[in-house]
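HOLO CASE FILE
Compound: zinc ion
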Amino acid sequence: MSAKHSLALAQRQSDALLNRYSGRFAPSPTGPLHFGSLITAVASYCDARAHQGRWVVRIEDTDIPRIYPGSEAHILRSIDAFQFEPDAEIIFQKDRLDLYESVLEQLHAQGWVYACQCTRKMLGSNHIYQGTCRDLGLALKDQAIRVKVDAQEICFTDRLQGTHCSNLSQDLGDFVLKRRDGIINYQLAVVVDDYLQGMTHVVRGADLLDNTERQIWLGQLLDYPKLEYMHLPLAMNDQGQKLSKQNMAQALDLNQAPQLLQQALQALHQAPVDLDAPRIMLQQAIAQWDIEQIPKGTTLKGIFL
Ligand SMILES: [Zn+2]
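Model generated. Tokens follow.
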């Protein structure tokens, strides 16, 4: 392991000793940030600061074919324009692939992962993997790598969405951690980095609610500490679709940062904040931050952008 990455492990230990709220904003650069991303950034920032916590930014860019040109630069410009103040250097997951590989090796040594040679055609329309390759003992090289799941019910209580459970073997089957084309799956990178960055709290959009049990399962296998989750209701467009690059959500206009910040806080049903420099507005929002006011449920009603 490189010196830089052993430093990351040492950092993890010192943060864990502090035992302090640590939160993050972790966008994927599959398009420029839109109003939905801003809501997540604002909520994760205010929640961390209202708990005297740390807050970091992580760019989730392992899925290289899906990266949209220029969107990483737009994310970085947005962090500046909204005057968020991360407590650590922004990290890029594509620079950390050897860390995820070393965790895959660890899981392999423990017998939790195996190579899968099934083609998309063989898997067909069945969304639950039947474990076809589980006992074939195939070499890992140039194959998809799956992690075993078992029949236990995995539950967590979300700070907004209540209790959610999944039996991964019934709902999903053994799932992919690395694709045949070598791309590290989002689930693995998230779990490893939340651990290495000493995260205690995850605040993100409700579109990721269904990923949580998989991430908890991986965290259990790796003996990582448990996290607290808060999944925010999603802003919708006037077609009733969540804002995303796929449905052409508008990029944040960074010349309108104070106005957009006001609208994001309004969408979260927080007390009004006066128009000012974003840093001042965020200070006021943190002082007033109240998660009880955030609408329950997985979508925000009446947000039409
Ligand atoms: Zn298979």
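CASE NOTES: Residues 116-118, 132-133 surround zinc ion (CB under 6 Å). Residues 3-111+183-304 form a domain with the Rossmann fold fold (CATH 3.40.50.620).
CLOSED: yes
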